[in-house]
């Protein structure tokens, strides 16, 4: 009988309401039965609730995998540190800071955040050092078709990288390979900030999950982790022909609205977005009422 149903007496007590037989009785095995797997080793994060469950089950120690350690490398002679006023032909290195925060939001650890100049010696040395200190290296910039796309030049000339154009917008130029004495995997992202963020969600995030022991279904790309939910378009907008478009949107009560301009350099719209709406390659215009898969952006505060 709960105290709330009595007058609160200690030596003598008045019960104010009837108690059905068996009510408020916690029976043995009512929560977890003997022989049941309490915690499965399938790459799930050991959350506070799961720690409590293990402790209550009498488990004092569990085998866990370490958080993946990630090196973030930005490239380009035009980059200046955050806080420095850029001169002519320069831009602030916002990418490495953004990617480092995304790594942390994904549950991984930033091993190092550094930069390299647009020359092969600098890029080679930086990638080699990054590969020896991390489980995964991600770079930004230097992977397109320009004369100074040094990351692509370095990895291609050594035979350690593979580059291709992915039929998606933003984020068409992509690459991967191995660096350092341990052959650490590297994922090379585009230099435009929106392209880098989108590419992180559809390429780097699944890689981090796999490094952490989680199951990844590549056939479900661009949502191999099954994180997406469906929502309904609340407005119309054009989409790139023959490319999967990942539109920056806000989702409110399962209604989709674009967060602003969709250029790959537009951080203002990116700052207001909560999801990426996946527009299939065969769709050239989204109409009001269309149902789209929406991928949640890491670290987003509604």
UniProtKB/TrEMBL annotation:
SUPFAM superfamilies registered for this protein in UniProt: MoeA C-terminal domain-like (SSF63867), MoeA N-terminal region -like (SSF63882), Molybdenum cofactor biosynthesis proteins (SSF53218)
Cofactors: Mg(2+)
Keyword Transferase recorded: yes
EC class: transferase
Gene Ontology biological-process annotations: Mo-molybdopterin cofactor biosynthetic process
Keyword tags: Magnesium, Metal-binding, Molybdenum, Molybdenum cofactor biosynthesis, Transferase
Gene3D superfamilies per the UniProt record, alphabetical: MoaB/Mog-like domain, MoeA, C-terminal, domain IV, Molybdopterin biosynthesis moea protein, domain 2, Molybdopterin biosynthesis moea protein, domain 3
GO molecular function, one term: metal ion binding
Pathway annotation from the record: Cofactor biosynthesis; molybdopterin biosynthesis
Similarity-based family: Belongs to the MoeA family.
Protein name: Molybdopterin molybdenumtransferase
Organism phylogeny: Bacteria, Bacillati, Actinomycetota, Actinomycetes, Micrococcales
């Amino acid at each position: 009988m709960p105290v709330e149903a009595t007058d609160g007496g200690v030596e003598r007590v008045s019960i104010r309401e009837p108690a059905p037989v068996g009510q408020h009785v916690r029976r043995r095995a009512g929560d977890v039965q003997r022989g049941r797997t309490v915690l499965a080793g399938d790459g799930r994060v050991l959350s506070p609730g799961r720690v409590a469950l293990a402790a209550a089950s009498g488990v004092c120690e569990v085998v866990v995998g370490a958080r993946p350690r990630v090196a973030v490398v930005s490239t380009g002679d035009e980059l200046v540190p955050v806080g420095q006023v850029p001169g002519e032909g320069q831009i602030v290195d916002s990418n490495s800071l953004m990617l480092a925060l995304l790594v942390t939001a994904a549950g991984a650890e930033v091993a190092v955040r550094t930069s390299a100049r647009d020359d092969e010696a600098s890029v080679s040395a930086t990638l080699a050092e990054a590969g020896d200190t991390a489980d995964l290296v991600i770079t930004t910039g230097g992977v397109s078709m320009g004369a100074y796309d040094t990351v692509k030049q370095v990895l291609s000339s050594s035979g350690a990288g593979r580059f291709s154009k992915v039929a998606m917008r933003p984020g068409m130029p992509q690459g991967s390979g191995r660096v350092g004495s341990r052959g650490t995997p590297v994922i090379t992202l585009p230099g435009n900030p929106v392209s880098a963020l989108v590419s992180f969600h559809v390429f780097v995030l699944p890689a981090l999950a796999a490094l952490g022991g989680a199951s990844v279904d590549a056939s479900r790309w661009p949502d191999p982790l099954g994180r997406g939910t469906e929502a309904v378009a609340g407005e119309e907008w054009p989409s790139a022909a023959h490319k999967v478009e990942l539109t920056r949107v806000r989702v409110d009560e399962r209604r989709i609205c674009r967060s602003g301009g969709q250029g790959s350099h537009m951080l203002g719209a990116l700052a207001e977005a909560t999801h990426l709406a996946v527009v299939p390659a065969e769709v050239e215009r989204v109409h009001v009422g269309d149902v789209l898969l929406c991928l949640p952006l890491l670290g987003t505060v509604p």
